[in-house]
Design goal:
heterodimer; A: 295 residues; globular; B: two-stranded antiparallel ribbon; 11 helices
Amino acid sequence: MKSQTADKIATGVFIAIALFIVSILIFLLGYILFHGLAKINWDFITSPPKFMQAGGGVGPQLFNSFYLLFLTMLITVPLGVGGGIYLAEYAKPNKITELLRNSIEILSSLPSIVVGLFGLLVFVNYTGWGYTLIGGALALTIFNLPLMVRITEDALRSVPAEQKEASLALGITRWHTIVKVLLPSALPGIITGAILTSGRVFGEAAALLFTSGMSSPILDFTNWNPFSESSPLNPFRPGETLAVNIWKINSEGLVPDAKEIANGASALLVLAVLIFNMTARWFGRFLYRRLTSSK
Amino acid sequence: MKDPFIQNNMNRKAKFYDKFGFVLTLLCAFILIIATVSIYLFVASKGLATFISDGVSLVEFLTGTEWKPNRSVEEGGPVFGTFPFIFGSFAVTFLAALISAPLGIGAAVFMTEIAPSWGRKILQPVIELLVGIPSVVYGLIGLTLVVPFIRQYVGGLGFGLLAGTIVLSIMILPTITSISVDTLRAVPKEIKEGSYALGATRWQTIYKIIFRASIPGFITAVVFGMARAFGEALAVQMVIGNAKKMPDSLVDPASTITSVITMNMGNTVSGTVENNVLWSLGLLLLLMSSFFILFVRFIGRRGRMGS
């Protein structure tokens, strides 16, 4: 009889823990969206921030976040897919592969502030660029690359071995097999993974404080020449992102409505992460159906 | 016309592409090794300069409790005791793990043993969303919700180790939960069924059989969570209070290694002793994070040897 009672109590405790965690998430999301959505309007997401007075927006920061994400993915995806192909198709069980796997493990668990420090040393000081978007993108690449490599490797490994063997048996070269047979079937997995890592990049701040900087120059959104100083597309300009902005206005406290701006910006960040999550799922399923049934 | 990619008559072009592709992917893979090695080299070269060229004593750096980078020469010159920050980092890390470990493992048990079908369907996305919330947002919620709450109901200004612990314990919960779930799912079905067949209740089975088989996995989960807590910078910095002294209590403002780096790296001039000391703290952080990985490896190897 006693052990039955203990069993009931234990079950109750486990259910309580699960409910507690679900309610934390509901509470957090509710709190962020309730306080933030009230602040979000067209003016807030397009107008530049104001210095020392209330009523500013986060337009440039929002643009910088997306642009930085774009730059990061532009570097990460080809390198990550390349590294993933090597690990899945070429790597032999030797010392170099072991070193490679250790590097991936170390890089993926590095604190992001350490990646930021490394970025400050190499991409800001050593290159002499100062705080730039491209420096930030390179720092984020270091932090994102291990994940992208793993995603690609897993996606390639999940392609049925028969497909690869059939292609090789036809006398097709290895590289041609990878490009024409393996990559197309692995594509849904790779794209889904890339979108999921985008959410992480979008919300990252610690690695960016000292690489892409905490300021944004006055941008002229009619100037689309990437080599011009005031152009939003110039990768060699400082670019404060949304996440960095939340941190900055809270620690500096120069803007009177810092709390509201931070709430609005947080809601934007969380919405972006939610959208990335859902898009990844939907797109993965969509692509899978397209690629498997149409051919 | 012959297909240029048929191997039997493999022409030069196909051969070239085959080699080219291999070299290309090898280069991509090598970038990972280069990045890892250069992070250690660069951070170590900056971090060790404090002790080699600036003559700061390593013992004083690690154990000193006074942080006065601008003290004048008449008063004895600047001192760089970072023990309060190291203490702060370890304190929030262990306390957060203490709160999160039972919750995370409990949630994992719920997802695998109590309600494997619908429990997992609900909790899996919850955990994924908790991971997805950016750390500055956690910091902001800590600042606007946790800090005022502590100020009102516990005492002090609200900033301090307690606030840092609460924020971190939510942040590391998904890490601990998801690794624990993987561990529990790896427990062989036969031993569970054997236990039930002997008439054991579910709790007895969980407690006496499943937990015992999962201990190395749980340790791995908690250590990974601690690694995340130890390295987290902005969320902690926003709620810890940033006082450069030993805290008197859990609600007294304090600092961590990461919060000091975050606060001061931008305001100090590169090449000065104060700046170099920050790099030494960065090196310490890097070494600690490597230690966590090595520890997990060690546990993993011992777990395998035992079974």
